[in-house]
Design goal:
4-stranded parallel sheet; about 15% strand; Rossmann fold; 11 helices; 8 strands
Length: about 350
């Protein structure tokens, strides 16, 4: 008796073959592959009210992001926040939207990163490794991409959240969604997740190189480099033991040491505060103003926690935070872009993939 066909597999795939030592009537199945699924935060499908509301509802309903009890938070979210914030967020996205591709910069950059990683891995592993990407919120969803990889014959999947530093609200929730997607599979692939890579030499080298290139091309050398990381409620660190704060500070220290700087030339701050709680400090928007008022009229800002430029960097840093600096008397504001698809960054990411594929390929 032949084996019943599992519904996920693509039996019409060009590389479908009958498994070795199988019975004659065994159906052909896709050639076994290893999947590499990269994951980023997410992006709305468009900037209109409904697209923004749908995206923000998914994002702000995540218990990893906002851990208030549902009975307390959901009425506020559904009644107040999602009535107002989609308009403001939509306007912010419109100011940076990639109109030619009709998508957010995060989507464009992630596609570029994945294309470069595909090329690098194909040169090393041929067609035995399949590379794709998903978003934790919005599209393409994690579930849809896990289904696609399984259907293509991936019996092993390496899941790679593109966050250098670990946080429950980023890395952990991305992993949660990946594991939920696996729960829907009858024939589950073996799975691994890539750990945080903030202290990997190749990542620090890529960061340092981006800073050195930016400083070399600046008309005026910045007085200080502000390393601005996405913030978290301080309570997540003190009560939950989230390592994010420590890993951010270590990233800055390693970058400082690689650049050969002293403590007066670089500092760590946190941005994107939301809600009434105290968040990790100092706040970037306040610190840049303090720097201007204290005499540092030329500053640079980079965002080491973001693997790709997005709303928090292109709009918040390069518009809102820049405005705060200039309003306080600042003169020269240099935003150093995220590593994006820079070759050194791609090399660092491929290095992490290669290390975590050990024993699989």
């Amino acid at each position: 008796m032949g084996l019943m066909k599992p519904s996920r597999l693509n039996f019409d795939a060009p590389d479908a073959v009958c498994p070795m030592h199988a019975q004659k009537d065994h159906p052909k199945i896709p050639k076994e592959k290893v999947g590499v699924l990269l994951a980023n935060l997410g992006t709305p499908d468009n900037t209109d009210y409904r697209s923004m509301r749908r995206y923000l509802n998914e994002f702000l309903s995540d218990k990893r992001v906002i851990d208030y009890p549902s009975w307390k938070w959901q009425p506020i979210l559904q009644g107040i926040v999602l009535s107002i914030r989609p308009f403001k967020s939509g306007a912010a996205y419109r100011s940076i939207w990639n109109n030619e591709a009709d998508e957010s910069p995060l989507m464009t950059i992630t596609k570029d990163q994945v294309a470069a990683i595909k090329t690098a891995l194909a040169a090393e592993y041929g067609d035995s490794v399949m590379v794709d990407f998903c978003m934790r919120y919005g599209n393409p969803s994690t579930k849809s991409k896990v289904e696609k990889l399984v259907a293509a014959g991936c019996t092993k999947i390496l899941f790679f959240p593109l966050y250098p530093q670990y946080a429950g609200a980023t890395t952990a929730t991305a992993n949660d969604e990946f594991f939920r997607a696996l729960m829907a599979e009858n024939w589950q692939p073996a799975a691994r997740t890539v750990p945080p890579y903030f202290d990997e030499p190749a990542y620090i080298e890529a960061l340092a190189d981006s800073v050195e290139r930016a400083y070399a091309s600046a008309e005026r050398k910045p007085d200080i480099l502000i390393c601005s990381y996405h913030g978290l409620p301080e309570r997540y660190l003190k009560e939950g033991g989230d390592p994010y704060h420590c890993q951010c500070r270590k990233t800055t220290r390693l970058l400082k040491e690689r650049l050969g700087w002293d403590d007066t030339q670089i500092m760590t701050t946190f941005q994107s505060k939301f809600g009434p709680e105290e968040w990790l400090q100092p706040y970037t928007v306040e610190e840049v103003a303090r720097q201007a008022e204290s005499g540092n009229k030329s500053i640079a800002v980079c965002a080491p926690a973001f693997s790709a430029d997005c709303i928090e960097t292109l709009e918040e840093i390069n518009e809102e935070i820049k405005e705060s600096f200039e309003h306080a008397g600042g003169e020269e504001f240099l935003y150093i872009p995220c590593l994006n698809a820079d070759p050194l960054h791609i090399d660092a990411l491929v290095g992490q993939i290669r290390k975590n594929l050990s024993g699989w390929v």
